[in-house]
Amino acid sequence: MTDVKISVIVPVYNTAVFLSETLDSLTNQTFREFEVILVDDGSTDESPLILDKICARDERFRALHIPNSGAYNARLTGIREAEGTYIAFCDSDDCYLPDYLEKLFQQAEKTGADITVCGYMREDMKTGKIHSREMVAFGDRVYSYPALLDVLPRVNASTCNKLFRAELLQHALILEQPPRFAEDLLFLCSLYPFLRKIAFLSETLYRYRVRTDSVTSYMTAEDRDLMRENMLRAREYVFQKDGSPEMRYVMDCIAFLHIGLGQVMFMTNSGEKYREASASARRWLDRHAPGYQKAGHSIRWNLEHDGVQFRILLERRFFRAHLIRPAFWAYDLIARIGVKESKW
Predict the structure, then answer these.
(1) 21 - beta bridge partners?
(2) In 3D, which of 170, 165, 171, 5 has the Cα closest to residue 84?
(3) CA proximity to 202, closest of 96, 341, 86
């Protein structure tokens, strides 16, 4: 293809049941100057056939069939093949809204952002109910370095509601054994030392469909330990590029949110006792990310900075007061009601 402005990378592994709807959402984009790189990660169902069929009828689509190595490595494979000035990602069981690429491209071109972020909806796969709409609180703001450091802990970990300038992704961390959990987070963190501008769109343009049978719907002790190991690897990589106190604070906040909160929630949902999961997270944070004890800054700081870390401040205080379990119950209730910005 000529004049490819956006490369869309779709890692695929045994999602034949959902794949057609995902691919339809790509073919129906109002933006036309894009290619789609479909990375079949060793699927054993009908996914490879579905991919080959769409490639035969639409020249914008290319399929790469590789041995199974996980979504993280599948994304890296797609990045190496991408020809676009920008790169976007889509999970093979989710969907873009029709103007996803058009609006993100327009905002990226207008602002010169390295990463452009849109809102996304969390949709129940079975019922179609919208649980919440996330990443809309920033409106259409644009943040440049160093002010963008204040908002990075609040940016969701997924790659799929974002448009990346292609050259930024040359800095992505290569992991020998990526974890099932938070691999998107580690990918994003490895880009932060090179990020100079981030832009937001308040519109909800991505459908994240929640599956109860997803590989990330439960967490084992092995998953927990591998995620922590890779978090340390990501932190080492980031600090080699930018070891400033400001970047260390960002990474400590991120560790708090995903080790102190996310892991504890997943481990308790997977059967571990809350006290044990919480104590384990606290020990890890005290040792490896002690700056989390100042996460969210102060109330005064937040009043002076549009409240960008006020939630993190509250969550840190809940955590230190051993009240995270009630906070989880509150989160579950809020998610059931279906409000905006129910996640951190």
Answers:
(1) none
(2) 5
(3) 341
Phi, psi of 189 (to 5 degrees): -60, -35
List pLDDT tens digits, range 94-105: 999 999 999 999
Q: Say how far apart CA 62 and CA 7 lie, in whole Å.
A: 11
| Start-to-end C-alpha separation, the chain | 40
CATH hierarchy code of domain 6-210? 3.90.550.10
For the chain, domain boundaries: 6-210, 221-337
Cα Rg of the chain, angstroms: 19
Q: What are the beta bridge partners of residue 124?
A: 210
What type of residue sits at position 37?
Answer: I
Residue 167: burial class (beta carbons within 10 Å; 0-12, 13-18, 19+): exposed
Query: How does 33-57 read in b/e, with b if 16+ C-beta sit within 10 Å?
Result: bbbbbbbbbbbeeebbebbeebeee
Sort strands 162-165 and 115-124 into parallel, antiparallel or unpaired.
antiparallel
Total Cβ atoms within 10 A of residue 151 = 19
Cα–Cα nearest to 295, from 264, 250, 263, 258: 250
Rounded distance between C-alpha atoms, residue 286 and residue 290, angstroms: 5
Please state, in angstroms and rounded to a whole number, the distance separating the CA atoms of residues 342 and 331.
7
Query: Nearest Cα to 268, choosing from 254, 278, 256, 258?
Result: 278
CA 39, CA 64: separation in Å to the nearest integer?
A: 5
Helices 310-320 and 324-337, interaxial angle, to 10°? 140
48 preceded by a cis bond (ω within 30 of 0): no
Closest to 114 (Cα-Cα) out of 184, 203, 36, 192: 192
Cβ proximity of 160 and 120 under 8 Å: yes
Span 139-197, pLDDT tens digits: 999 999 999 999 999 999 899 999 999 999 999 888 766 667 678 888 999 999 999 99
CA distance 303 to 296: 12
Specify the 3-state DSSP secondary structure of 117: strand
